[in-house]
Design a protein that fits this description.
The structure holds four protein chains of four kinds. Chain A is α/β, with parallel strands linked by helices. Chain A is about 35% helix and about 25% strand.
């Protein structure tokens, strides 16, 4: 296991900082069903952290706990050094946690640009009156944030579809727009829910590149869930492996790959 | 040639309408919508009378009449549209046939100098001609109706109503609330106990109200209803075995429509009226001869002789007589709306004149004056016979208690005058 | 027993009866919504149309008489015959099936896969259309509907309760009949849905369109079927209300009484519609009885909605709706 | 090639986000504005004002208001009639209590009061969704109408419960009461409509608008990316009710002059405005105009054609009117489910490429 105190240096030489988020003994139940059972792990500044596991392992539930959509029955969520009280998802978002969704959750009635701009909503706070007359604060703010949005749009290479209604886009592009929407809020923690689900090899490579670039360019801490072992192992710095709501492994890709429990889970050894 | 409104609509710039050489009587009817059943016979009667006058007498004073019908559906906005669409044609008098349309036409007609006749509906205090210069509501209004009902009950009970319980079942709208103040005053004066039972539009469901009546056992029920509310109320009254002869409706609750649905159970139900019922008048022979046989009957032609048809006929007769009076006053045959107003203000209907018109005792004899646009407020009582399916008059047109009503009229009209800075008219 | 309590019991019973009628109207909404996801705004107008057609057929009225007369200068009104009630009901039912077919063929077949709001809007158009056609066909004057239903106070109940409490309860015979008919109708619908091939297909469609389609159920047929059933329910509701108030425009407004029932019972649940109807019926009558005089009366219109609203705030999925689990 | 965007470049983001980025559109907009403000007032007569233009302008304001709630924020409301009544009665109380204040101020304050009431009745939207919410808003409709009918303070204790608009002025020109000029009432309403449309456009293209649309398109996702659903829904209810309240005030004071709550602001009104919004196009300011025009003007046109040109009996025309409006609604839906605004948009797209379709 790695040193828990001060961070580490990755194999490719990036410096990883202190703990951004720490989950302590999280248990989540739906009625009688236990989705997550007593799981603890941490996410560190600047790293790409993956949560993997077979179907039904509780990965998505875990992500939903992080993003505040579910409140766990037991356990503590520590964010930036303090205990996070149960809060509404939008409050979590305002703390700088952004995410994408497994089944794309774009706003279908809006254009790509507007979708991306919704990612800036947490940063925009001009008053209703100013917006109504479209003068002063509101107008300045719009331009300012539009610049930020355009930068991300350029970065993700979706300039040409800027004014296209999202509903008309193909799947792969939608995923990218969703990433843009999450990214534009300049999150200190970016959660990606199966960013490569349903993509072909080429699209997966594109997406991997974008994830690495984001991490590289903006230094964004990323936590991602993924089904596809291969991609994850190449991408991430550390990996948590879940199965049936329990944590069965945690460590660098290499460590995890050698973990017997993980191998069993993925090869489908019967549970007792 | 028929003047086409459409041309006006398209070329609105040249909107000043040509002067027509006929007397235009707009009919803001409602043959559709929730109250169509009440609107159709009235509109038919109104139109048939003028058709007959044209065919029989060659119009009024030698000038042909023309009825311009416009469908309001009992809807205020459509009423405005109808008013604006027809006023340019030299319309002589408006009969909006809806309390809502009346209220919003009162200031408009005054400003446009066109008279309006709201016979047995509309704003009661418009009877004060000193304030409402262009609105007329002779021969009777809602408050006359309330008083007439009480007077009828007084007569029935030997002049004493003290200790009696009377319930008012009313349409929960401006119209239905009209009689409340009058009845409250009268209850103080005569010592009866008044209870109020509002029924919300449309009035399909009145179980609560009639269960309460069954529990409270009032001696009499007075109803100010309209539309489906009437049929349901009569049916519910029959259901709880409320004695029909103790159940009195206002004239808008006293047509065939209101009682037929309940069948034999409605027998004996009473309703107020300000005009006679049935088709036993010479005028109906003329209608048969000049209108029906000529194939000119309005609508489906199946309403002749019904209560509301007679009301339309009566309204048309009063309008025609007012026009004739106006022609006499001003000495011109082709009168303007302003002259029509003068004619209405000087209108006098005598028994002799009604007999002359083939309508003996069709309505009360009365006289309009500048101060009094409401006439004397004479109301009669009719009763339904379910066997023969006919309404018949069971009392003469009698006076109502103006001692109680006049102060209320003065008070309400004074408030209106103050709110709108209206100077004295007379 | 105190007098007020006895009165309250009477009000309660009458509320139940009124509730049955509300439920009957709500049932028509539920049938269509469950099978096709369409919130059928035209249900009330369908009841009016059915009742108008029934009376028209019974009286031997010439359809479109007014427009024919106006166009050709003829003077047609009646054929001169009358049709017995039962036969007329069958003929009217045939008319409603035809209507269902037309609705499916000319409207909803072209709108498959559209959003609910658009389907809802199509039913608005349908309501306008049907109202106009109904008036053109049969005229807009008020008509008396007499298919021989008993009306008036039920003597037996009056006497028995008088014996018990010294105060005879008022129960309308028509309400008793309506309750009986509603019970038969609901039982019939449930049996139909459970034990016939078409019924099972209907339920399959309600559960999952795609899956039903893939096992060879004809959606087209099912939708015509549910619209016909809704037409039948509308006819029954039209008869019950029409017997009381005559057949006329206001009949289409009874749909407004069904909406709070739908909120309470859920748009997709037949038992919900019935229980919801009863709760609304009893609730509004008791409220009017208890607080109406203090508030000035005529509270029934809004009370049903406020009751349903308060209920929904605590249970957003309605009485029998499935609990909504939000997922991302 | 009347209509093209080639050669239209935006060099700043502000230019790019303006309402009419295409020059041709912009010119047409200025032209329509100029025509409405500078030409129509000189041509207008009573018929045009009272039968067509006033109802159109006022319903368009109501439709813009409702469109914000339904079209932009996705909260279906059937309480419009009730909220219009709040505007009307608030305006009436203000007019009679402060006769010397400008009518302009009364109408605005009436709108603000309605906004507050709207927020109150918007609270259940946090729990109730979709058609359930639509039916729940009927509670507001029925309760408000009952309240205004019941409590006589609202109608200054008049005998019948009708309210009448006395004469009130703006800069000394009468805009309410019987002695108004057609141009004055028209201009008064036109100014409100123009302001409403501009404000609505500004709000919907900015921050608030995006949070509304996010809630509409996917409320859960919106919440997770940081939209406060409480704030978004309640602001939508407030802004929507503000406009609806203004339209109610104008409807009573300027257009009809006298109203009775049950008749003028009944459930039918709620449905009518909703139909306008849906037929015009959800989520489109232009659609609000188109829908209002369609439902105000079409019946009048049909009536003129049927009664005045063809000489048919009025009732047959009225019935045909229903059949035609109903039929057209269904037909439009089949051709283009997203309303008149979408039809217009598609036409523009075609025109943009015309005469070279590829």
């Amino acid at each position: 296991m790695l040193d828990q105190s001060e961070g580490y240096v990755t194999s490719d030489g990036r410096k990883i900082g202190g703990v951004v988020m720490e989950m302590k003994n999280i248990t989540l139940r739906f009625g009688g069903v236990v989705a997550i059972k007593d799981i603890s792990f941490d996410i560190r500044e600047g790293e790409i952290r993956a949560i993997i596991g077979p179907n039904g392992a509780g990965k998505s539930s875990m992500l939903n706990v992080i993003s505040g959509f579910y409140n766990p029955q037991e356990g503590e969520v520590w964010y930036r050094g303090s205990l996070r009280p149960p809060m509404k998802p939008y409050q979590v978002a305002r703390q700088g946690i952004a995410r994408t969704f497994q089944n794309i959750a774009l706003f279908e009635g809006m254009t790509v640009l507007d979708n991306v701009m919704t990612g800036r909503l947490t940063k925009m706070n001009s008053g209703m009156f100013s917006q109504a007359i479209w003068k002063g604060r509101a107008e300045a703010e719009e331009t300012e944030n539009r610049e930020k949005a355009e930068r991300i749009i350029d970065f993700l290479e979706i300039q040409s579809i800027r004014k296209t209604p999202v509903a008309r886009l193909p799947y792969g592009l939608k995923k990218r727009v969703e990433l843009a929407r999450a990214l534009v809020s300049e999150p200190s923690l970016l959660l990606l829910d199966e960013p490569m689900a349903g993509m072909n090899v080429e699209e997966k490579e594109d997406m991997s590149r974008f994830i690495l670039d984001v991490n590289d360019e903006f230094g964004t801490t990323i936590a991602l869930i993924e089904h596809d072992m291969g991609v994850v192992m190449d991408l991430s710095d550390r990996v948590v492996v879940m199965d049936y709501g329990k944590k069965i492994g945690d460590g660098t890709p290499d460590e995890v790959r050698r973990n017997q429990d993980v191998i069993d889970a993925y090869l489908g050894v019967a549970h007792d | 040639m028929k003047y086409k409104l459409g041309t006006m609509a398209i070329a609105a710039i040249m909107a000043a309408g040509p002067v027509m050489a006929d007397l235009v009587f707009p009919s803001l009817s409602y043959r559709t919508g929730p109250y169509a059943a009440g609107g159709i016979p009235f509109a038919d009667g109104y139109q048939d009378y003028f058709t007959m006058i044209n065919a029989r007498d060659g119009g009024i004073g030698g000038v042909m009449t023309r009825v311009v019908e416009c469908e309001t559906g009992y809807n205020t906005e459509k009423g405005v549209e109808c008013y604006e669409a027809t006023k340019g044609e030299g319309s002589l008098v408006y009969q909006p046939l809806s309390t809502g349309i009346t209220y919003q036409l009162i200031p408009k007609t005054t400003a446009d100098n066109i008279p309006m006749h709201t016979m047995g509906y509309g704003r009661t205090s418009a009877a004060n001609g000193d304030v409402f210069s262009h609105t007329f509501n002779y021969p009777a209004n809602y408050w006359n109706g309330a008083s007439g009902a009480i007077k009828y009950l007084l007569d029935e009970n030997g002049g004493d109503l003290s200790g009696k319980k009377i319930a008012l079942v009313y349409h929960n709208s401006a119209y239905g609330k009209e009689p409340i103040r009058t009845l409250e005053e009268l209850s103080k004066k005569h010592g009866f106990e008044l209870s109020l039972l509002p029924v919300d539009h449309p009035g399909q469901e009145q179980k609560s109200q009639w269960l309460q009546i069954r529990r409270d056992r009032p001696d009499n029920v007075i109803m100010y209803g309209w539309g489906v509310m009437n049929q349901v109320a009569v049916q519910e009254a029959a259901n709880i075995r409320f004695p029909m002869e103790n159940f009195i409706g206002i004239w808008w609750s006293g047509s065939e429509n209101d009682v037929l649905a309940a069948g034999a159970a409605a027998d004996g139900y009473k309703a107020l009226t300000f005009h006679n019922v049935g088709s036993d008048f010479p005028v109906f022979d003329d209608i048969q001869q000049y209108v029906v046989d000529a194939g000119e009957a309005a609508g489906a032609g199946d309403q002749i002789g019904t209560v509301l048809y007679n009301r339309g006929l009566y309204a048309a007769m009063l309008a025609a007589e007012a026009a004739r009076t106006a022609q006499g006053i001003h000495g011109v045959a082709d009168i303007t709306p302003a002259m029509m107003r003068d004619g209405m203000e000087a209108l006098e209907i005598t028994e002799a004149r009604m007999t002359e018109l083939g309508m003996p005792n069709f309505g009360p004899a009365f006289k309009v004056s500048c101060e009094n646009h409401g006439g004397p407020g004479l109301v009669g009582m009719t009763q339904w016979d379910a066997d023969t399916k006919t309404w018949s008059m069971i009392s003469d047109f009698g006076p109502s208690d103006m001692e109680v009503i006049q102060p209320l009229i003065d008070e309400d009209s004074a408030a209106y005058a103050a709110e709108n800075n209206i100077a004295s008219n007379c | 027993m105190p007098e007020q309590l006895i009165f309250a019991m009477e009000v309660f019973l009458n509320g139940l009866m009124a509730g049955v009628l509300y439920a009957l109207v709500a049932l028509g909404f539920v049938l269509i919504f469950k099978a096709s996801g369409i919130f059928n705004f035209a249900q009330g107008v369908m009841a009016l149309f059915a009742a108008l057609t029934l009376v028209g057929i019974m009286n031997g009225q010439v359809p479109f008489a007014h427009i024919i007369n106006a166009t050709f200068g003829t003077d047609l009104h009646y054929f001169g015959w009358t049709v017995p009630g039962l036969l007329a009901i069958l003929l009217t039912m045939g008319m409603m099936v035809l209507l269902a077919w037309c609705v499916q063929r000319f409207v909803f077949r072209h709108l498959v896969g559209q959003e609910p709001i658009i389907l809802f809007m199509a039913t608005i158009g349908l309501a306008y259309f049907l109202e106009g056609v109904g008036d053109l066909m049969w005229g807009s004057d008020i008509k008396t509907l007499d298919v021989g239903l008993p009306q008036g106070i039920n003597e037996t109940i009056d006497e028995v309760t008088f014996g018990w409490f010294g105060y005879g309860f008022f129960i309308d015979n028509l309400d008793l009949v309506a309750t009986l008919v509603a019970a038969i109708l609901v039982t019939g619908l449930v049996l139909f849905a459970q034990y016939t091939k078409q019924g099972r297909a209907m339920r399959a469609v309600a559960d999952d369109h795609q899956a039903a389609l893939s096992v060879g159920v004809s959606l087209n047929f099912i939708w015509i079927l549910v619209w016909s059933l809704a037409g039948f329910v509308a006819l029954v509701a039209g008869i019950m209300w029409g017997a009381k108030s005559g057949v006329q425009f206001s009949l289409s407004l009874i749909a407004l009484k069904a909406l709070p029932v739908l909120m309470l019972g859920g748009f997709t649940s037949i038992p919900g519609a019935i229980v919801g109807g009863l709760i609304i019926g009893v609730g509004e009558k008791l409220f009017e009885f208890a607080l109406g005089p203090a508030l000035g009366g005529a509270t029934e219109n809004w009370f049903a909605y406020v009751l349903a609203l308060i209920f929904l705030v605590f249970r957003p999925q309605g009485l029998f709706g499935e609990k909504i689990i939000e997922r991302v | 090639m009347l209509y093209r965007e080639a050669g239209d470049f935006s060099s700043t983001y502000a230019q790019d986000s303006q309402t009419f980025p295409i020059r041709f559109d912009r010119y047409r907009y200025y032209f329509v504005l100029a025509f409405a403000f500078l030409v129509v007032p000189f041509l207008i007569n009573d018929y045009w004002a009272n039968a067509i233009l006033l109802p159109f302008l006022i319903y368009a304001i109501a439709a813009i208001g409702l469109n914000i709630l339904v079209g932009y924020c996705g909260q279906v409301s059937l309480g419009t009639g009730g909220f219009m009544a709040v505007g009307a009665y608030a305006c009436y109380k203000l007019m009679t209590a402060f006769p010397d204040v400008s009518m302009f101020v009364h109408v605005i304050i009436a709108g603000l009061i309605t906004a507050m009431v709207g927020v109150l009745f918007g609270l259940p939207s946090l729990r109730i969704k979709g058609f359930y919410l639509a039916v729940a808003t009927l509670a507001a409709q029925f309760f408000l109408v009952w309240l205004f009918n019941r409590v006589s303070w609202f109608y200054n204790y008049s005998a019948s419960g009708q309210i009448n608009a006395p004469e009130r002025t703006v800069f000394g020109i009468a805009v309410t009461g019987p002695n108004t000029d057609a141009w004055a009432t028209y201009m008064f309403c036109l100014i409100f409509l123009t302001l409403s449309a501009i404000i609505a456009r500004n709000l919907t293209r900015g921050t608030v608008g995006r949070s509304w649309m996010a809630i509409r398109d996917m409320d859960i996702a919106a919440e997770i990316i940081g939209v406060n659903p409480l704030k978004a829904k309640l602001t939508a209810f407030a802004v929507s009710s503000f406009f609806v309240g203004i339209s109610g005030a104008l409807f009573f004071a300027v257009y009809l002059g006298a109203v009775e709550v049950g008749e003028a602001f009944g459930i039918q009104k709620s449905f009518l405005v909703l139909f306008m919004v849906i037929i015009g196009g959800l989520g489109s300011i232009f659609g609000s105009f188109a829908g209002a025009a369609f439902l105000v003007v079409l019946p009048v046109v049909l009536k003129i054609v049927g009664v005045d040109w063809l000489g048919w009996p009025t009732d047959i025309v009225a019935h045909f009117n229903l059949v035609i409006v109903g039929g057209l609604i269904v037909m439009f839906l089949i051709v283009e489910p997203h309303g008149l605004a979408q039809l217009w948009r598609l036409a523009k797209e075609k025109l943009r490429l015309w005469p070279f379709p590829h």
